[in-house]
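Translate sequence into structure tokens.
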Amino acid sequence: MSHELSRREFALSAVAAGTAMAAQTSAGVLGANERLQVGVIGVGNRGRELQDALKAIPEAKITALCDVYDPFLQAAKDDLGGNVATYKDYRKLIESKDVDAVVIGTPDHWHALQFVDACNAGKDVYVEKPLSLTVKEGRIMCDVAKKTGRVTQVGTHRRSSKMYAKAAELVRSGHIGHVSVANCYHLQNETPMGMGKPADSAPPPGLDWDLWLGPAPKVPYNRNRCLYRFRWFYEYSGGQLTNFGTHYLDIIQWALGQNAPKAVMAMGGKYAVQDNREIPDTMQVVWQYDGCIVTFSQYNANSAAGNPPHAETEFRGTLATLYTGYRGCTIEPQRVRYREIPFKDPRDRKGSNGQYGALKPSGVEKSEIKGGATNVDHVRNWVECVKARKECSAPVEVGHRSTSATLIGNIALKRGKVLEWDAQAERFTNDDKANEMLFYQYRKPWKLA
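Result follows.
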């Protein structure tokens, strides 16, 4: 199949070819001892990590691989001993009768197209985060998954962690009091060179640059636009706000028991690096939730902002502060005011905190929860749910809401104003120009049904 074939034609043929497969899988034909046949689309960087996770799960078998860059594809094939089908066009992999389900580890601008085509072909889907490049793409993905009855998992793998689940439960239960502020951080010192400023050039041997671009605008090849560095260009990604921020906002929304903000604002720019990226190296985003302010901070710095070090998120409650990170979860108690002390003399501070009142321990004890999050646990959850036909720990609707919060943060940065968000309608209520940024026009012939 040529990649010039329209997606509408492909979708029609894929649905027809996949109807039987969809019916079988929905009926639970896969037995307890049968292995799920999985195709992996995108086997560089993150895709290879997911491939490693699948290899650790006996219930799954990788039967097909796809990538537009031959060296990645060959390395992934060799890793599996060579006994696996390989494709450059993902649609050929999806057509395969030897593929029951697909894992999508491609750049962000490809997720929607590949997810929708896979669902329409009767394949269950694991898709990396951020779920989509735009809010409208994410909504289409949710609708298609629901219509086709697919079992879906978004790669916010902290959702399959017992430690993160316990942390979210502690916040929701009120153990640390009312949380009025939740902060999250991404810190990476790239000063001063960043990625550098390479000139445009011919693509490297084995890379289908036009197919890598897909629905994105046609531009000359530049090594900073491709492979992992694509994250710093808006045509393919939303930067670390959507990359790591989706993880953090997912945990924060989970813990708060809320799935969307009410408003957002952002500031930032290229303050510390001297390269050709489009996306800021430094930024601060603030979201308004019911009863809580949430912030994301991206800095060029060497150490974590959290306390203790390596904390990714912090929930500042009225009784204690809870920190979460890859090395575990820590609760640091606060002191609370228990009686008012009349203000007399500024020099008289015995037993008081200035003019406000005396303090005492909140009653929450300092504690730690050991643990972290692994790719294997999250992929295993998906494999088990596919076989059992039940909802995963991070289904597409959940992933969409967590991704959308970060996507509208980038829109607020571009618009330079506070944007009010209607989560039900998934539109801004105070800026029509901002609403135009909720989707973009795909490059022909690519179309999203």
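Note: Residues 7-159+376-395 form a domain with the Rossmann fold fold (CATH 3.40.50.720).
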